[in-house]
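Bumping with the actual sequence this time:
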Amino acid sequence: MSEIANATNPGTYTYFIRLADDASSDRTATFLGNITEQVSKVCSDLANHPILSKATSINALGFSQGGQFLRAYVERCNSPAVHTLVTFGSQHNGISEFQNCGDHDWSRLVPAQYYRDPEDLHGYLENSNFLAGINNEREGHCNATYKENLQKLKKFVMYMFSEDETVVPKESAWFADYNKTSEKITWLKERRIYKEDWLGLRILDEKNRLEFRVADGDTLAPTLLLTS
């Protein structure tokens, strides 16, 4: 990926976000851990990075769950500021199907922290320790900073994989809602999160800064990449 970025824009500095020093622990952190704590670590790492901390702005690319984690970075700290955020097959509106493999603490499973059951929204809003917060979904608990930071993006590009069988529903990559019973998809512009602009997505769209794109194939492995 860094080679592609450098070929497209020679001299591009690329940085892969890591949650641990060794490869094994870093891989484990993509499945086990507290997302809020992980995002806080990334905020600290970037704010203190000798090169990125001095950048006027950076571009961020997130694959699969890395996309919503980078969005959380933009909303919660955004220093250095992200100019363009591109996400591929990300679960911006969560996942409605999740299989707990093995004997793990549910609260520490990373995918469980963006699980969103459309048939039990009360339970989701009551118990979500990550997604409901960064999506500003709780009545009376809208975080104005999240909206302010997100709408500072010069471009927010969301790719959905056409044959995605890993993310259910795949339309979550575009903030769409999915009813498992009726199989009805409610697209972003039909939802309250857009109409009432809880996150600034409508403002981005009105300024032509929000893009919905389709990529062929299935989702990619979770990765986060920053370029400056």
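The tokens above came from a reply further down the thread. The chain has a mean pLDDT of 86.
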